[in-house]
Amino acid sequence: MLPSLAKPLKSEQAVEKSECGLRPCKMEFLLPSVPMVKIFSFLDAFSLLQAAQVNKSWNEVANTDYLWRKLCQKRWFFPDMPRKCWHKQTWKQYFLRQTRQEHTISRAKPEDFIYKEMPGDFGVQGYVSYLSKGGLTMDREGKSVVCVVTSRTKLTAWDIGEGAMTWLSPEQPIDILKLASLPEMHLVITVDKDATVKVWNCRDRDALATNRMLSPCRSLKAVITRHGPVVLAGGTSGDLHTYRVPDLLLISTVHALEAPINQLYCSPHLKWVFLNKKEPRVLPKVFFMDSLLRPAEYPTPVFCVISFTLCVKGFWTPRREDRITLMYQRGAHRTAGFVTFDIELEKTEDKINVEARVVASFKLSCHTQSPEWMGVSDKSVIVCSSGPSLLVYTMTGLQLQRFQDYPEEIMQLLVNPIYVIVTFTDGCLEVYKWEERSYYLTKCYRLQNESHLGQQSMIPKTLCDDVSIIRVVARRAQCFLLAYVMKLCS
C-alpha cells in the first residue's frame, strides 16, 4: 500500500490547478508524510538507510530530520550540535558522523596510534578525567584534553595530542579528594578533604564557584540532565547532595543511606541514580532523578530499596533506561554472581511507586576465580574479568565466550556500547568490539606497554574518548600520564 500512496490522483491535481491557478503540486512527499514517518519512526538507522534506497518518495521520508533527531535522542539522550556546525549539519549527518567517530578506536590498528608519555606528580590515586567531549570533532578540529590532579593540591590540563600541559591551577590549601568533569561545558568539579566543592573552567586562575558539604565526600558525579547540569555528591554521612552547575547552588539534600555512599551510578538517560555501600546491613537504593532536581514538586524523594546485599559493582544497561546489573561476592570463598533488575515507575493520581523487579540472575561456578571488574552491553550481555580470563555471559548465565590466552592478570575493564578495553597488570591493553546485531565480542588488537612498567607499578585507571586512550601509572618514585593517540589528531 505504501508505494501507491506516493502518487496523487489526477483529479486531485486538477482541482488544485483549477482552484489555485497553479501548476500541479507534487504530492509524493506531502500526502504520505504522516503515515510513512510514523512507520519509519520504528526503524533503526540501518533499516532507515535501506528504506531510503527504495524510491524517491521513500528517500525523502527516510531523510526527514525528525526521524534522525529521534535516533540521536535515543542513542545519546540529547546531543548538543556544535554551534559552528549547526547550519551545516543535518541530524542524519550528525548521527552518521558521530557513529563513525565512536567506532574510531575499535576499527583502528596498533600502527594508527602514537604513544605519548607525560611525566608529572599525579599521585598514587591518579585522579584524571576528560575535559573535552569526544576529542575529534566532525570537521577534524578540536583537541583531546584531560584534567589531572597534580601534587595532590593542584589541577592541570593536558593537551593529549601535543603531550603538553596547557593550564595549572594555584596550589589549594588542602588535598583534592575527588574529580569529575562535564566535557560538554568544558568544566571540572573537585572536592577536597575539607569537603569543599569547586567548579573550574581550566582557563581562569581561580574556581568559578565554591560550596561546602557537611561531611566528607565519598562519591562524585557530574551530569547534564534535561533540567540542566548538576553535580551529585555522596557523603560519609549517607547524605546525597545535588548542586546546580556552574554556580553550585544547592538544589537538594537527601539522607539516602545509613552508611557512606561509596557507589553512585546514573542510568544512561539520567532517569535513575543508584546508591550503595558494600556492607551486609546496607541495602542499595535507586532514586528517581526528577525528585532530586525538583524538591518543590517532590517534597518526599521518590526511590525504591533493592533487596540485595554485598554489591561489589553495578552497571546500567547502555541505551536502556531502567535495567541495571549488580555483581556480588559473598562468603569466605567470595562466591560471585550477577542479578539483573528492571526499575519500574508507576504514577497514580496521589503517589508515585518505584519497584525493582528481578529479571535474571546466576551464580558463577565455584571453580571460577571471583571477578573484580564487569560491564554490560546494550543487549544485556555481561562481560567480566576472572584472573587472566575475559568471560562473556547472557544475563541468565549462559557462557558465550571465554578469552584466556593472556600471560598476565586483568587489572581493569572499560566497557561501553561499542568496545571493551582490557588493561593488564603489565600495562598492555587489549581492545575488543561488540559485533553488530550479535551478542559476541571480537578481538581487535593489542597495544603493547612501551615503557615496561612492571606488574606492580601501574595504577588501575584507564580512560578513553573517541580518539585516545589514557592511563595514569606509577613507576618507582615517578608518575606518568600515558596516552595512545590516534595519528589523525596528534
UniProtKB/TrEMBL annotation:
Keyword Coiled coil on entry: no
* UniProt entry keywords in alphabetical sequence: Ubl conjugation pathway
Q: Which InterPro entries match?
A: F-box-like_dom_sf (IPR036047), F-box_dom (IPR001810), F-box_SCF_Substrate_Recog (IPR052121), WD40/YVTN_repeat-like_dom_sf (IPR015943), WD40_repeat_dom_sf (IPR036322)
Q: Which residues form the F-box domain?
A: 31-71
| CDD domains, sorted | F-box_FBXW12
- Presence of the UniProt keyword Transmembrane in the record: no
A GO cellular component annotation here is: cytoplasm
* Pfam families found in the cross-reference section: F-box-like
Q: What is its pathway? A: Protein modification; protein ubiquitination
What protein am I looking at?
F-box/WD repeat-containing protein 12
